[in-house]
Prior knowledge:
Number of helices: 17
Largest sheet: 6 strands, antiparallel
CATH architecture of the largest domain: Orthogonal Bundle
Number of strands: 29
Structural class: alpha+beta
Distance between the termini: 72 Å
Number of domains: 6
Radius of gyration: 43 Å
CATH superfamily of the largest domain: Transferase(Phosphotransferase) domain 1
CATH topology of the largest domain: Transferase(Phosphotransferase), domain 1
Shape: flat
CATH class of the largest domain: Mainly Alpha
Amino acid sequence: MSVPSTDPMIGRLIDGRYQVRSRIARGGMATVYLATDLRLERRVAIKIMHGHLADDSAFKIRFIQEARSAARLAHPNVVNVFDQGQDADMAYLVMEYLPGITLRDLLKDYGRLTAEQTLDILEAVLSGLAAAHKAGIVHRDVKPENVLLADDGRIKISDFGLARAVNNNTATGQALLGTIAYLSPELVTRGIADARSDIYALGIMAFEMLTGEQPYVGEAPMQIAYQHANDTVPMPSSKVVSVPRELDELVLWATARDPEDRPRDARAMLDQLHDVSALVRGGTEELALQQTMVLPANLRTDAKALADAETQVLGARLAPTKPPAATLLGMHPVGTGPIGPPDSGDLLTKKADKRKRRGFWLFALVIVIAVALGGTGWYFGSGPGSDVMVPDFVSASPEAASSELTELGLTPEPSGAFSATIAEGLVIGTDPNAGSRVPQDSTVRVIVSQGLQPITLPKLAGATQADASAAITELNAVVGSIDPVFNGEVPEGTVLSASKESDGADVSAGGEYFEGLTVNLVVSLGVIPNVDGKTVAAATDILVGKNLLVVSGEQTFSDTVDEGDVITARVPEGTVREGATLTLVISRGPEPVTVPNVIGMSWSDGKKALTALGFKLSYNPGADAIAALLSVASTDPVAGTSATKGSTITIKPTNPFA
């Protein structure tokens, strides 16, 4: 895919190391590009500060602070920072490249997330923030745009551009930094932030994931800031009734107006999240039996109206049905019995006799069951009906396995099979498998390794990469590395050569080998595109589209290529792979030539002298008829003038009759 040539950064080599490929995103302070680290041959994301901010020392310091803050962290849920520097007047930051989307993109596509999805994302973000808080770093800009969801499932937090050390107390003293929708009350009112400010922003983000909207909206930023400072964040279930109560309480805890009522840092909230996750993922029935976690007192007060309503509903659902008033007073409905109580002495005697008879029969039943179970256990445990468990003989010698099976009362039967993991002559396993229980005197097959199974590898050179890979896999061999190289004689996608990974021996022509063989393939990328005669922009687009790097080289004269266009692209010697650098040779147009002095020369000799230098001639053709009588009288341009090769020279002959 070609990169638009309108961005001057595309194709630029930064600091002699990072080749810019394409633009990924643009923000208020910097633009992020996809680049290739030529030294380590890997793709990276390079963040370049906008040029108009280069003279602003505050922005420069903040940009460098991002590198230093993130570089102090080494955590799977934090985007890695590799390098930071300055090229001319351009400050840049090099980070790991994560193909994927942001949490903001996910919310735009799906509106809101399930409780389980929210828990997964919160766990990853809290893990990264816990590492930052432990290192003494406050992120200060936690929001969905800074949560990256990689294509391979990894979740990472990025953009520590507003980060500060915790012990700085992070008072801005200037305009509020960060996104207004996620600012904590103390940042709005006092401009002070610590680890608990990150927790507040994360709570707002959790609300947004669960409901698909932010808790506070307004036409102006100050309206939203006022709500953060003076209102209590509602429960997510007030917007989406299916949100579990445990997540309601977690959001309320994280978004308490008073920082003292929030988790002290990301680690404290992560520990609570694990408990919440176990409850939420356990299912609704299990949740009904679990004890709800207790919020701090002030949060219970903030949520009192909703909690009281829920308690009343729950109490009504769990309370026993109230019996009729007559029954409570000792009365019976008509026809069901006397109003007065029966004789208590007779009633107690009957109940005692009934208990004695029941106890005797229960005792007799227990004895019978015990005898039956004991006899059955003896018969199957150590008597004639007992089974034997087959031991695990993997990698044991066949003799040892046969001897042990014989001692157990089983009959060993040797057999063989090929194996890529067990050495030849040792036991692969048994049939029945180890751990199985079989009757005594049963036959157990002892499977002995015959080593690697022989295979016949077909000719691989000249086959397509797909066909070669399929042939290798079908033979229980392994496709190793794929090395794509440019080749002008073999079509793209065709295997050029194949080799054994173990010793590099060539197996392009196939042959007799063994299963488990790892085969490395060299595959053709086809011919390098011909860009002769094209403009520099067009040639760059074509070559970058083939994952080649381009630099401008020397400029030279050309009689056939227009000035400023590409004469040729110089290819490095040897094997050319993706990422190789091609040098463009640029045309300066035709080489200028000095007009010679041919005045006084014979007409024929003067013409020859001018055409030999590449000039075209303009003259009266009638002069050729009497050329022997004529000589050159004048030229235009005159002798000694510099003219372009291929330009026209006007010549006039002398008058033979003068």
